[in-house]
Amino acid sequence: LLGFVMMTLAGMAWGIYTWQGKSVKAPMPFTACNFAIAAVIVLLSLPFWPQATVLTTEGVLLSATSGAITSALAYALWYHVLPKLNTATAANVQLSVPLWAALMGWAFLEEALTAELWVATALVMVGVVISQKKRT
Description:
Helix content is 77%, strand content 0%. It is mainly alpha-helical and 136 residues long. Helix 2 packs antiparallel against helix 3 (57-81) and helix 4 (87-109) packs antiparallel against helix 5 (115-132).
């Protein structure tokens, strides 16, 4: 239940963030500022993490590289394309991101494609198809 609630809140937050991003005049500085705020929040929250949490130099560098470089490139592309999309299409593109992440995890990191993932993928894709249907 906790996972469901947290994912629901994350999805709602991402939707609001994308909706706001559509009207931002300079999305890259906006996103850079948000990344900086998130980094500060993570640093301030470190004392509250479980004792079993182990931070390694390699792990911190890889996550920082992933967040700073890969995400920055993805956001740059997203904010270039976003103004050209209507809201429903933008939302559906966003819904498909976890599916692409799972596929890339399988292709490049040898992660498992579980039955739950296939069911979730099917449900998301059905939702995307339904939402894209033109009303008659």
